[in-house]
Prior knowledge:
CATH class: Mainly Beta
Radius of gyration: 16 Å
CATH architecture: Roll
Bound molecules: flavin mononucleotide
Number of domains: 1
Largest sheet: 8 strands, antiparallel
Number of strands: 12
Strand content: 25-35%
CATH superfamily: Electron Transport, Fmn-binding Protein, Chain A
Distance between the termini: 13 Å
Order of helices and strands: EEEEEHEHHEEEEEE
Helix content: 10-25%
Number of helices: 3
Structural class: mainly beta
Amino acid sequence: MVKGDIRRAFTYLESGSVLLVTTNDGEMDNVMTISWQMVMDFSPHIAITTGDWNESFETILKTKECCLNVPSFDMVETVVGVGTVHGSECDKFSSFGLDRAKAKKVKAPVITNCLAAIECKLEDYIEQHGILVFKGVQLWENLDKEERRVIHANGDGTFFADGEFRNLRNEMSQWVPEGSERL
Length: 183
Ligand SMILES: Cc1cc2nc3c(=O)[nH]c(=O)nc-3n(C[C@H](O)[C@H](O)[C@H](O)COP(=O)(O)O)c2cc1C
């Protein structure tokens, strides 16, 4: 992976990709799957919804950071596997063949098999709804990966890949911030 411009970090998520959320509790790395996620602005602020049935949740509240990794569609079985066991039950990285690299601004690792990874700092926790609000502080991009499609979840155990692509950047120019164009 190579460092990318944080101004285009949100473009990996705005279409609604399933994510692999990595954490480090000071001793061990962990990873969980998240499909409830939302881009909130261009800065980027990104929200996920989760709770105390996941071990990662406690780690995020404690460390106030994580990495949001964007898996490609060829990783869909891995993503489901990661989301069906707890970190205390097995080493999910070796069990699911996930490769790690050190992040720059957080202790949670970057998953180098993914299309992109966004290092994030926790800014807010809305307890009533289990919403964690993060600020992305560093983008990593895997520009060599052949599979460019992200994973979309229907929420019923079925998944689909991106379909047709259209470039309407000129028409959208008032809403396309400088530096956000995907490579
Ligand atoms: C496709 C998929 C999507 C998921 N999305 C979410 C989600 O948005 N929020 C959540 O709290 N858990 C979600 N999960 C469940 C967690 O990933 C799961 O509980 C995981 O095992 C937690 O790992 P941990 O206990 O090691 O943190 C999802 C699982 C799958 C398979």
